[in-house]
């Protein structure tokens, strides 16, 4: 078998409404168990934690622990806690992929040992009301250490991503992955099928960034020495720190795609449109921003990683001017139209406030066709593709009791995102930007006059 597999390799997975609901309830129960475990462990003393968990690997502010004594296989063997950079929305969005092309591209950012991956089927994906929720099935195969000596590992799992609230009403992001067996995902001779059970919780950190709590267990399949399994498992758990870079790559890709539909007047003066210096020199050439298409010098542009369009295993970068670089942090991940509005703001910010307002009103909501939210996703995802539904099955783990799905986070639509207010905010930002630029120009002129004297 040659990897990567064709996009249509896996046959459709078809679920009845009852089977789909069973998986949703199963995911909700696993999530609630993790939240309960998180709250219980908050009351453990430092001495109790040290008796229970042994640190095995640390990376920046994240630490992975292994349980010192396992009573039985039902206990979770690993724990990962700490802090990562980014906002809560960025971290959760950095874990979201509801189709195979997007899943391959973000996986290429997360890990360098990726061989192939696919979205096997989707039960439910994000909507306007719940912009982060995803319930789906995925498959992945990765390279094992010692090429040719050890078979690659692959895994098939059920995944649930979204936002909920804890018992104190605070917002929690989460990602849970549970190995499953699907009749549409066969075993491959080139791979050993591994299994895992993982649940991440994400909470806002008061001093910045996002707090992470994860508990997990895995079985790499075959004969693996314990210490090797621990190290490789720890490396897997620590990849969560890439969530923010992945989210930024997704946003940057969307900005570049939206920028392709934005027109800019042809520039003939040859000056950088950011610092107004000469755009090209003896040892440097002029650049063009991939979003707003400004002509820039080499000092006012930066290479930004985006999702690869051709080979997902090869990093791809685009040129961003300093102004558009800031847009990555200004996108509202809960409002798909935010990307298009910011791109048009960036592209017209040199022509005056009145054109900003006109372009804003002409673009609001152009991605929407109905209330399903599907058309709105076109401005956000790096590519578009339908994921089919596939063959009958039910989770092989039993559970009891009634579980309700985590409720979608309520959005504040009290009028703060109306067109008039948005236009005023953009105008204020533009005036402030122009004032800063004028000050810089005056300082340059003053320095030149002083030098001439």
Keywords:
globular, 10 helices, alpha+beta, Herpes Virus-1, 453 residues, Alpha-D-Glucose-1,6-Bisphosphate, Chain A, domain 4, 10-stranded mixed β-sheet
Summarize the model shown.
The chain is α+β, with helices and mostly antiparallel strands and 453 residues long.
Write the topology of this structure.
Layout (H helix, E strand, L loop, with lengths): L16 H25 L4 H7 E7 L2 E6 L10 E7 L3 H6 L6 H11 L3 E11 L9 E9 L9 E14 L5 E9 L11 E3 L1 E10 L5 E10 L6 H13 L4 H17 L27 E2 L6 E2 L4 E6 L9 E6 H6 L9 H12 L4 H11 L55 H34 L1
Parallel strand pairs: 6-8
Antiparallel strand pairs: 1-2, 2-3, 3-10, 4-5, 5-6, 6-7, 7-9, 9-10, 11-12, 13-14
Helix pairs in contact: 6-8, 8-9, 9-10
What does this molecule look like?
The chain is an alpha+beta fold and 453 residues long. It is built from 10 helices and 14 strands. It has helices spanning 17-41, 46-52, 88-93, 100-110, 226-238, 243-259, 322-327, 337-348, 353-363, 419-452; strands at 53-59, 62-67, 78-84, 114-124, 134-142, 152-165, 171-179, 191-193, 195-204, 210-219, 287-288, 295-296, 301-306, 316-321. The strands form 3 sheets. Strands 1, 2, 3, 4, 5, 6, 7, 8, 9 and 10 form a 10-stranded mixed β-sheet that branches. It has a two-stranded antiparallel sheet with strand order 11-12. The N and C termini lie far apart (75 Å). The chain has 2 domains: 17-243, START domain (Alpha-D-Glucose-1,6-Bisphosphate, Chain A, domain 4, 2-Layer Sandwich); 250-352, Herpes Virus-1, CATH 3.30.40. Strand 1 and strand 2 form a beta hairpin.
